[in-house]
């Protein structure tokens, strides 16, 4: 019987570790019980390893991939697992890349000396990867050879077990083919673009800093934008109606051409801009009608990214996503959003926000490379986005929003690993956003999360304005930011978009009062939570009207 204990790879207190030791002692003492296998994955067990090694269970499953590779030395230091079965997770259950078979065989050979029996296994369940890479017909066959989805990973596990049992000679042909595939990946112009590498290598600390400190920027932005107190805006998308999705499907199927598609999307942008002007919003958006998804839309346009046709993976429940693949060095062959922005800005005298997905989120919602540090990939994506941000600025954008909803989500499980992650993550965001003038306002956005662990990082993004999902927690995050001394502008959401219910002006006023209790009026924005694309036009219109009404009422009060 397998008991899954991934919670033990997180930092645990001595009391928790004692409790685990007692629990397994009691389970082990049961008479007439099945054999017990305790499984952990996604990171190293650390101080929990000796606890489990001593527990009276028959087997342990350990992850030996990525940051969990330290389990190998820790296991040796703990004296191995005499008398126990070790299920050795040497095939990464979460990435989509082929295994380095010779390296895994070497790990397995060491492990043979540390346990009674060694089984070969993936490091975790395979629900994190798609089913079969060989059915991807649109991907260059050379690249397909670098990919391992669930079927390929299962074959790797079986092959490694055979190599372990019968000796490497028994699988010599497969090892040679694997070596050739790894070498072709390591030397391919897809994974090594000298121009991208030269540019990332030349990045300096100053490149990732705005030239002016926030107070000067705020003043320049106030002068340029001339916004009222409690400025109103939205998070970017407007309803993705079925007509928009049908138009996109028609384009893909060749039923309409690019010009017809463009006209359809522009008609939507006209409607979105006209509504916002009429409703009285201050900083407008184009509504993102042309985006299938906030990551995929950019991935499709960046060199070095790959889309799969069948690479679906479960995100949660019955929801499936098809993450794009960061396969090679990232560059931007052309601007990705400037035309849409320009079209929207040409329709109105009010500022329209440029709208991009940030480097950390681009990584978090894609399959990442395992052949270079995440920080390097993030830096490449950041530089591509930096060019987009400065192009938007050149096209007249006074406000550019770079969404980072996944910043909290990819925080490492172990506290000790967090500072390094947050350092490269915030640097990547700043690198993407700091190429602009002082009077260009950078916004960012984050979805609801437990922000406590990343408060400092939110500050280190150095964005001029941050909007956050906050309605359901009744603006709690505004208080948390205030307590942390957050010095810049904040837009805690005041309409819970997950519900079709339309808030009244009074309700929004109440939420804004809660916001004002934490953030001074000069630094408070009025916006809904994120996810307008999932709503219909009826509730969108009415709720945004309530929101503008509430902002106006409070402005009058404050003026009085
Ligand atoms: N700009 C995106 C939108 O409005 C942000 C989505 C998100 O918060 N995840 O849809
Ligand atoms: Zn969000």
From TrEMBL:
Residues 230-552 form the Cobalamin-independent methionine synthase MetE C-terminal/archaeal domain. Signal peptide: none annotated. Gene3D superfamilies: 3.20.20.210. InterPro entries: Cbl-indep_Met_Synth_N (IPR013215), Met_Synth_C/arc (IPR002629), UROD/MetE-like_sf (IPR038071). Its cofactor is Zn(2+). Pathway: Amino-acid biosynthesis; L-methionine biosynthesis via de novo pathway; L-methionine from L-homocysteine (MetE route): step 1/1. The keyword ATP-binding does not apply. Residues 2-112 form the Cobalamin-independent methionine synthase MetE N-terminal domain. The keyword Cytoplasm does not apply. Its EC number is 2.1.1.14. Keywords: Amino-acid biosynthesis, Metal-binding, Methionine biosynthesis, Methyltransferase, Repeat, Transferase, Zinc. Catalyzes the transfer of a methyl group from 5-methyltetrahydrofolate to homocysteine resulting in methionine formation. Belongs to the vitamin-B12 independent methionine synthase family. This is 5-methyltetrahydropteroyltriglutamate--homocysteine S-methyltransferase. It comes from Kitasatospora cystarginea.
């Amino acid at each position: 019987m397998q008991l899954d204990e991934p919670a033990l790879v997180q930092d645990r207190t001595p009391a928790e570790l004692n409790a685990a030791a007692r629990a397994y002692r009691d389970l082990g003492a049961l008479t007439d019980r099945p054999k017990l296998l305790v499984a952990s994955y996604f990171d190293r067990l650390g101080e929990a390893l000796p606890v489990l090694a001593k527990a009276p269970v028959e087997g342990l499953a350990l992850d030996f991939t990525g940051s969990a590779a330290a389990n190998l030395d820790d296991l040796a230091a703990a004296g191995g697992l005499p008398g126990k079965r070790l299920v050795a997770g040497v095939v990464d259950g979460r990435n989509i890349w082929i295994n380095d078979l010779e390296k895994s065989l070497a790990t397995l050979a060491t492990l043979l000396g540390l346990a009674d029996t060694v089984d070969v296994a993936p490091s975790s369940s395979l629900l994190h990867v798609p089913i079969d890479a060989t059915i991807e017909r649109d991907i260059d066959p050379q690249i397909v050879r670098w990919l391992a989805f669930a079927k390929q990973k299962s074959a790797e596990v079986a092959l490694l077990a055979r190599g372990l049992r019968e000796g490497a000679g028994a699988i010599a042909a497969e090892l040679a083919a694997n070596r050739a595939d790894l070498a072709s990946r390591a030397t391919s112009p897809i994974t090594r673009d000298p121009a991208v590498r030269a540019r990332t290598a030349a990045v300096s600390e100053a490149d990732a800093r705005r030239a002016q400190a926030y107070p000067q920027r705020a003043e320049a932005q106030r002068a340029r934008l001339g916004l009222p107190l409690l400025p109103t805006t939205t998070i970017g998308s407007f309803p993705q109606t079925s007509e928009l999705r049908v138009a996109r499907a028609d384009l893909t199927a060749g039923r309409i051409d690019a010009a017809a598609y463009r006209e359809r999307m522009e008609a939507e942008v006209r409607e979105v801009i006209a509504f916002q002007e009429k409703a009285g919003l201050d900083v407008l958006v184009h509504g993102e009608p042309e985006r299938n998804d906030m990551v995929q839309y950019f991935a499709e346009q960046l060199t070095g990214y790959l889309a799969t046709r069948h690479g679906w993976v479960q995100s949660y429940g019955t929801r499936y996503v098809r993450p794009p693949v960061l396969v090679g060095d990232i560059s931007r062959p052309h601007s990705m959003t400037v035309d849409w922005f320009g079209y929207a800005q040409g329709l109105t005298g009010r500022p329209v926000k440029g709208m991009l997905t940030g480097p950390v989120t681009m990584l978090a919602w894609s399959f990442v490379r395992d052949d270079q540090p995440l920080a390097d990939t993030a830096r490449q994506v950041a530089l591509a986005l930096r060019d987009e941000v400065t192009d938007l600025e050149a096209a007249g954008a006074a406000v550019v929003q770079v969404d980072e909803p996944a910043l909290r989500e990819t925080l490492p499980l172990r506290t000790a690993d967090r500072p390094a992650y947050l350092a490269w993550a915030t640097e990547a965001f700043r690198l993407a956003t700091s190429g602009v003038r002082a009077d260009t306002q950078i916004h960012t956005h984050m979805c609801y999360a437990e922000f406590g662990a990343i408060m400092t990082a939110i500050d280190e993004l150095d964005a001029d304005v941050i909007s956050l999902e906050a309605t359901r927690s009744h603006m709690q995050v505004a208080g948390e930011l205030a307590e942390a001394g957050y010095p810049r502008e904040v837009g805690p959401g005041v309409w819970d978009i997950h519900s079709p219910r339309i808030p009244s002006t009074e309700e929004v006023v109440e939420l804004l009062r809660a916001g004002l209790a934490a953030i001074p009026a000069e630094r408070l924005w009025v916006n809904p939570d994120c996810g307008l694309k999932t709503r219909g036009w009826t509730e969108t219109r009415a709720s945004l009207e309530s929101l503008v009404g509430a902002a106006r009422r409070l402005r009058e009060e404050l003026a009085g």
